[in-house]
Amino acid sequence: MNYRFAGRMKRVPESFLGELFRVSAVPGVISFAGGLPASDCIDVDGIAEAARQVFAEEGRTALQYSTTDGYLPLREFIADRYRRRLGLPATADEIQIVNGSQQSLDLAAKIFIDPGDAVGMERPGYLGAIEAFSFYEPVFHAVPLEEDGPDLAVFESVIRDHAPGLFYGIPNSQNPSGTTYSDRKRRAVAEILEGSETVFYEDDAFGELFFDGRPRVPVKRYIPEQTLISGSFSKIIAPGMRIGWIYAPAPILREFNLAKQAADLHSNLLCQAILNRYLRTHDLDGHVRRVAAVYGEHCRLMCDLLDDLMPAGMTHTRPEGGIFLTAALPRGVSSMEVFHDGVREGVAVLPGVPFYVDGGGKETIRLNFSAVGAEEIVEGMHRLARVMHRLV
Amino acid sequence: MNYRFAGRMKRVPESFLGELFRVSAVPGVISFAGGLPASDCIDVDGIAEAARQVFAEEGRTALQYSTTDGYLPLREFIADRYRRRLGLPATADEIQIVNGSQQSLDLAAKIFIDPGDAVGMERPGYLGAIEAFSFYEPVFHAVPLEEDGPDLAVFESVIRDHAPGLFYGIPNSQNPSGTTYSDRKRRAVAEILEGSETVFYEDDAFGELFFDGRPRVPVKRYIPEQTLISGSFSKIIAPGMRIGWIYAPAPILREFNLAKQAADLHSNLLCQAILNRYLRTHDLDGHVRRVAAVYGEHCRLMCDLLDDLMPAGMTHTRPEGGIFLTAALPRGVSSMEVFHDGVREGVAVLPGVPFYVDGGGKETIRLNFSAVGAEEIVEGMHRLARVMHRLV
């Protein structure tokens, strides 16, 4: 039978990612290609105990249907943390629970993007956002990321000339680059946006994971009515429960709620209740500090090995937090070659290609330093070095 | 600030449902308005024990990221059940896990519907489908439901004249009517569809809940390549975990998987693992038989009371399964009046209005018989009878 799919399906970027992950899932391959948190950093016993309490004390309600906005005690916890940690005057009414940050991307695109609408992004930009947005057929305008945030001249011209409905950015430890916006650029971004019709989509998946433990001021602080923040427990507690949230002004949240209801009624209540119980019986600050310390060590180790082992002309970012860095390859070496030769050598990296909406990424690779341990980082970097020296 | 939302947001049906549920959530109100399974029918202890085993034996993997298609053992269980119960040659490769049936609706619309595309539905049609589809801006063509399924002449003319990309139906114990397609109409629907470009979306949320325990032959049996089936554990195990699935031909499932990945990467793995463990250590057939028996008794009780207590001119459907029936009001009585007077009297019903894409429903109400116990059904029907006698 000849199936007649919607036109938008042709706009979805070629999913060579699935292929990459299949290829790199060979036993023995050390993978820097994914984005998993360290399994050792997931407190399985603590979460199991929280689950036991939920079943014992509120099992029957936690297994029933619930409201679209999400489990109130969890939304209160999140709002309270914004108030205490970042000085943002959040209330539970401004929080909507979603299935991890990825669903925030889909729903935001659904409520904001008509086919042909302009959408601003960083260059390189997060591939999950590119994928989610593409279903709504926008025209992307990419703003180059510099060491301390977006190129402000290009950013200003995108906002002025194209009036995007959304600008999507990750100011804290960006995926894929690992870059963090400076305070100056946060203010400048807010000033340029002020008075425009562009909503700033501030993806904050990594803000809790700065190696120095110091929170950075969100752009939302400067233009609260014009910013929505998305957050997630995937990187700090556990991704398998698929619980994230959006924190947005009431008029945006209203549309968001409609879209969420139509998308899947509500996020799974059992995991919301388990997470809430876990968060209220454990020291999240301490947990996050321990996780960030582990990732900080991994990151320093990886950076040192890149400096020591790789051929001349290969450079890399130096993240202050998060789980990714990006390396630029020596002239003439292609990221797809590094990927294919790498898998044969037993090390997987992610070519930069899917992070670019306008071509590019052929000379960069993304490296993840959270999923694998120190020993594997050492061995994996030596394997990568052999590949690189062969290719230059 | 003036937010610039996408055009599709204006196409979303007025959500008076939220308002209705708020109004009817007054303490003391007996609600026939919702669609919850009986809380007593949820095996909290069994699910808690399954969760304990998952944490003990596979906690670390169940809390990590996973693949978009879903947890393989659960998909195998579902496929195996299709083979044994309905004689459909399903394999795990043809199953995609989603967040309850509602997400199947959203994703199917996303992959099949361009703005302005024709979509066929039953009249009345399931409001969750109307909501989900509306975001993709289709033109709805509604086919009247008769006692034994769709009006075949209208069905045929919709398929021939409008060539919808999708026809969405609920052959088993439809929501809201409670109607079940006869075998004759299932075959006729398949024959009319054969050779057309229309995919039949066979929503099977209630197929396990026939009061006589006898499975009905799915339309997919007759036109397998042209039918996708959606199913859900919400009505038979527990809705709070938000686990459903789609069973579709490979070319459809491929697009579905792309859309699911962009929408939220994957459904929560922890609940998939818990459900799988529960299903493999419990007697699902026995459980479903017990639940269907309870709902069957509730349904007969409600039907008897409607016959005995309501004024002349009020009629109702006689479901063979599921959790809903629809009552037609005596001439001149409006469903919104019954709703408002009902809440004052302490009983909530759902006006038929949101189930019609082309006006209608002002003279019908949907009644749910799963969420409340027998005593409440008796008391609630007496309250409703007082309202009805006042209004005629």
Named CATH architecture of the largest domain in chain A: 3-Layer(aba) Sandwich
Largest interface: A-B, 81 and 81 residues
Outline the biggest β-sheet of chain A: 8 strands, mixed
The count of strands of chain A amounts to: 14
Q: What is the multimeric organization of the chains shown? A: homodimer
Which structural class matches the secondary elements of chain A?
alpha/beta
**Order of helix and strand elements from N to C terminus of chain A:** HEHHEHEHEEHEHEEEHHHEEHEEEH
Between the first and last Cα atoms of chain A, what is the distance in angstroms?
49 Å
Placed side by side, the strands forming the largest sheet of chain A appear as 2-9-8-7-6-3-4-5
Helix content of chain A: 40-55%
CATH superfamily assignment of the largest domain in chain A?
Answer: Type I PLP-dependent aspartate aminotransferase-like (Major domain)
CATH topology of the largest domain in chain A: Aspartate Aminotransferase, domain 2
Mean pLDDT figure of chain A: 96
Number of domain units of chain A: 2
Categorize the overall geometry of chain A: globular
Q: How much of the sequence of chain A is in beta strands? A: 5-15%
How is this structure best described in words?
Two copies of one chain form a homodimer. Chain A has helices spanning 16-24, 44-62, 72-86, 100-112, 127-134, 152-162, 183-193, 250-264, 269-281, 284-309, 335-345, 374-391; strands at residues 30-31, 95-98, 118-123, 139-146, 149-150, 166-169, 199-203, 227-232, 244-247, 315-316, 324-328, 347-348, 350-351, 364-368. By secondary structure, chain A is α/β, with parallel strands linked by helices. The first copy, chain A, folds into two domains: 7-43 and 286-391, Aspartate Aminotransferase, domain 1 (Alpha-Beta Complex), CATH 3.90.1150.10; 64-281, Type I PLP-dependent aspartate aminotransferase-like (Major domain) (Aspartate Aminotransferase, domain 2, 3-Layer(aba) Sandwich). In chain A, strands 2-9-8-7-6-3-4-5 form an eight-stranded mixed sheet, sandwiched between helices. In chain A, strand 3, helix 5 and strand 4 form a beta-alpha-beta unit. In chain A, helix 2 crosses helix 9 (269-281), helix 6 (152-162) runs parallel beside helix 7 and helix 10 runs parallel beside helix 12 (374-391). The mean pLDDT of chain A is 96. At the A-B interface, helix 2, helix 4, helix 5, helix 8 and helix 9 of A face helix 2, helix 4, helix 5, helix 8 and helix 9 of B.
